[in-house]
Every structure is written in C-alpha cells, then in structure tokens.
Amino acid sequence: MRKVILYAVTAVILCLFGGVAYMMLYGNTEQSTAAMRQVTDSTGTAMEIPVHPKRVVFLNVSNMDMYVAAGGADTVVGKPTSQSMSPELAQYVSNAQEIGIIHSPNIEKILSLHPDLVIGVNVPFHNQIRDTLQQNHIPLYINTLDSYEDTLKTMKFYGALTGQPDIADKKIAEIKSQCDAALALTQGKQSLKTLILFSNPSSNSMASSSTFSGDLLKRLGGINIADLDTSMTGQFIPLSMEYVIKQDPQVVFIISMGNTPENLARFKEQMEQSDAWNQTAAVKNGRVYDLPMDLFTVNPGSRIGEAMVYMAHSLYPQEDK
Questions:
Q1: Is the residue at 261 inside a domain?
Q2: pLDDT of residue 294
Q3: Residue 163 CB-half CA count within 13 A
Q4: Is residue 40 domain-shared with residue 160, that is, in the same domain?
Q5: pLDDT digits (tens, 9 = 90+) for 217-267
Q6: 207 shares its domain with 253
Q7: Residue range 147-172: mean pLDDT, rounded
C-alpha cells in the first residue's frame, strides 16, 4: 500500500513540475506566435512588428494622436508626458501610463509595461533606446511627421495596425476636405513673404519649409523667407535681424516653445517697440500672429487639416466671413 501511495505522490509531483516547465516554455505562446509583418521605419531600419499590436507605447504625442484617431486607443499602454495633448486625446488615453517627456523617455518604465511595439520620432533621444528595446525583443518603430504626405501615409498605416482601416480612411477623407477648404482661400491671392518664428525663453529660430509648419505655409502659397538664402540649411535656422530686415516679411507667425502667455505677450510688445522689427512690413501693418501651441508646436496629427485652415485664415484674413 505504501508503494502505491509513493507512486501516486511521485506522479503528482512529476505532473506539477511538467506543468510548470510547460508554462515556462510555452506560457508566452500568444506573443511568440503572434502574426508579424515586415516593415521599414523612417530611419531605414527593417524590422518585424505584430500585425495587430496589443500593447503599444508612444514616445511622442503626434504619433499617438493618429493611432488613437485610427481606432487604436484601447491598445495604448504608455504615453509621453506632455502639455500639447488635446483634452479629447488625454481622455482617450487616460488609462495609459506616462513614460516621460519626449526628450527623456524612461526606459525602465517602458520595459515594465511589456509593450509589443514602441513608436517614436526620429530624434536622438528615441533612437538611443533602440538597442535596449531590441535586447528585450521589443521593436522600436521610428515614424517621421514633417509633411502633409507623412500624415496621410501614417494614418493609413495605423489603420492597418489597429485593424480599423475604415476608421482611418474616414479620418483621411476629413483631413483632405479641411485642407481643400484651406487651399480654396488662397485662390487669386498674392503670395506673401512670411517668417515662421520659433520662440523659446533662450533663443529664436526661423522654421524652413522642411518643418511641419513650413510645409503647410508652402502649400498655402506663402513665401518662407528662411528658404530664400540657399546657404542656410536645416529645419531651424538661428534668427538674424539683419537677414529679416533684408527680406522684409509681410507676415510673421510666432510659435511659442515653452513660453508662458505673459512672456509671449512681453516678446510681442518688445517687437512692436523695436526699431529693427518696425522696419518690417509685418510689424508696421500689424500682421504678427500667434499660432496655437496644440496645432503648431509639433505636427498635430489628425488635426493637421484644422492647422492648415487656421494658417490660411491668418494669411488671407480678407476671406474671413
């Protein structure tokens, strides 16, 4: 009898150990056998990512906004710490964990969320975490958003990832309709020399047409003074008052980066009182406009049509009804 009991106990123990071993080897089967797709990101890096990711971490707001607009809100587990998030987007991702500001993502926090995909933009702070993520079998997809085409292409791609292509296509149609309305305002209008001024507490820069806001200006028929000297290259060019006076912009757009409303108001007051700025047609004629932070500080994602309409009405206010 004792032998029978001993055999029975041994059998139970072996079954338990076998079950544990099975779970250790195959417990992650859902992730390891998930359908994958081959993609190439904006840096030219080829990788495999899930066909339909289940746990996505975003390192910047613009990509997250479009992913949510494409029907992916329920799969967002990590979000950047940001003040440029619209109230609607903040509500959609209220359950996601913050993983740090865009320039300093917290890799430990990201890993703790066990994502199957991380999406960011082509900046050093995001590219630098690629190796660590790769060591943990987590793909990092870098997605650049510098133009209107980038936005539409991204929306289409995210619709495929979320499995909601109809929602993405509907949003694309809405964006195109808004942009067509903005372009209609330019018909028969004179192209205006324009300065896009990126202002922060420590420096001021001119945005070229290779930036998101510069791309919109170009589409609306504006002449970006940052593009007129071919010796100046890059997305952002240090502000030179000598150059600004020489080019004499008819319109100035100010995009505030980190300035408080009080600081921005003080900066505009200084412009109005400055002998140098008063040599420009824009300041003399009161054609200096603030561009909303939530639409222009970075690519606004699914709200790009709204941004284009806003800029068009500022460039051509005589069209306002």
A1: yes
A2: 82
A3: 9
A4: yes
A5: 999 999 999 999 988 888 899 999 999 999 999 999 999 876 667 777 788
A6: yes
A7: 96
Q: Which is nearest to 140 in space by CA: 126, 159, 125, 124?
A: 126
CA 220 to CA 315: how far, in whole Å? Answer: 9
Same domain, yes or no, for 223 and 264?
Answer: yes
Total number of domains in the chain: 2
In a domain? residue 205 = yes
Q: How confident is the model at residue 100 (pLDDT cuts 50, 70, 90)?
A: very high
Q: How many CB atoms lie within 10 A of CB 225?
A: 24
Domain presence at residue 314: yes
Residues 6+ away with beta carbon under 8 Å from 195: 206, 224, 225, 226, 244, 247, 249, 251, 252, 253, 282
CATH number at residue 140: 3.40.50.1980
**Verdict on whether the full-model pTM lies above 0.85:** no
Closest CA to 63 of 50, 48, 76, 49: 76
